[in-house]
Write a structure and sequence with these properties.
The protein is globular. The protein starts with a strand and ends with a strand. The model is unreliable at 1-42 and 297-304 (pLDDT under 50). It has a single domain (4-308), classed as Neuraminidase (6 Propeller). The protein has an eight-stranded mixed beta sheet with strand order 10-9-8-7-11-12-13-14, with no helix packed on it. Strands 2-18-17-16-15 form a five-stranded mixed beta sheet, with no helix packed on it. It is mainly beta. The protein contains three helices and 20 strands. Strand 12 (185-191) and strand 13 form a beta hairpin.
Length: 309
């Protein structure tokens, strides 16, 4: 399938608008990141509190389409990548090879410095693993095993997976989209019986998990299937973003008070009040889109890149 990549640059005014004097939705430090935690990751002043509400924009907001051309990278090893992550001077690859599910390459030489992970049901074997990004300097990445909800950490010094913790099980098959802030706290989106929720996890608190936001769309029937999307965080800005795969909308959430702002991309076909069955019919699916969250640049203009396929 031909992929068309569109770059969406959302100015910070879109997300922050004016600071709201009413902070009724303020949450405790046990529920979310404090302002101090957010500020220590930033080299610039934090954004003002997010003003709740929604805005409607058209496809013109994307600007012209940008077509990208890839260049193959040659490696000595046989690879069949299903997930990639670049961190510092390393390329981390999740593989389809049953004997080397994960490979770590040094950049730019593409020298393989580590390979590990076997498919299976035995101790420390993997069934449905996923690479998890972290902001920590000492940890290269985490591995989330969807079958057992176990999380493994891979440190830069050792480059081998070590079982670290087990996340609370949800009602459905583990499909968490996780981002670690540090070695004890994480945010993730996960399925529920009604749809999708965003959770905050703290390894040292009791209970470890707290539901922070419901991703249901008002006046629109949905489920965990139709609410599928891409979850991302920007700890420097204190923001969470969720891009709905089917509904052409982006939800921005303020970590400090959990205020939410919806960015809705108007399209005629979305005004029909689609239900689960209508939305998932092949005749209604013309394209999907997702999000690649990034860090705010010095000019304060970059937040998310939207990808349409």
């Amino acid at each position: 399938m031909k992929k068309t990549f569109r770059l969406l640059i959302l100015f910070s005014v879109t997300f922050c608008c004016c600071a709201s004097p009413n902070r009724k939705n303020e949450v405790s430090l046990n529920d979310s990141l404090s302002i101090d935690e957010i500020e220590k990751t930033a080299e610039y002043p934090p954004l003002p509190p997010l003003e709740p509400g929604e805005i409607h924009i058209t496809e013109d907001a994307f600007g012209p389409a940008i077509s990208l051309t890839g260049m193959p990278l040659e490696t000595k090893e046989i690879t069949r990548a299903v997930q990639l992550l670049v961190k510092d001077d390393y390329l981390i690859l999740q593989n389809q090879r049953p004997d080397s599910l994960f490979m770590i390459f040094e950049l730019p030489e593409m020298k393989c410095v580590a390979a590990f992970g076997r498919t299976g049901r035995g101790p420390d074997e993997f069934g449905f693993p996923k690479i998890v990004k972290t902001e920590e300097d000492s940890i290269l990445f985490y591995i989330y095993e969807q079958v057992t909800d176990k999380v493994y950490k891979v440190a830069k010094e050792r480059m081998i997976p070590e079982c670290y913790l087990t996340l609370p099980k949800q009602e459905h098959f583990g499909d968490k989209q996780i981002v670690f802030f540090d070695d004890r706290t994480a945010w993730y989106a996960a399925s529920t019986s009604r749809g999708k929720n965003i959770y905050y996890f703290n390894k040292d608190s009791a209970p470890n998990e707290k539901s922070m936001a419901d991703l249901a769309i008002p006046r629109l029937k949905g489920s965990w299937t139709t609410y599928t999307g891409d979850f991302g965080t920007n700890f420097a800005c204190g923001r969470i973003a969720y891009a709905y795969k089917y509904f052409k909308r982006l939800r921005i959430i303020d970590m400090s008070n959990m205020n939410q702002r919806e960015i809705i991309f108007d399209a005629d076909e979305l005004a029909k009040g689609q239900n689960d069955i209508q939305n998932l019919e092949p005749t209604n699916i013309t394209h999907f889109w997702g999000m690649s969250p990034g860090q705010r640049q010095e000019d304060g203009k970059d937040f998310a890149r939207m990808i349409s396929t």
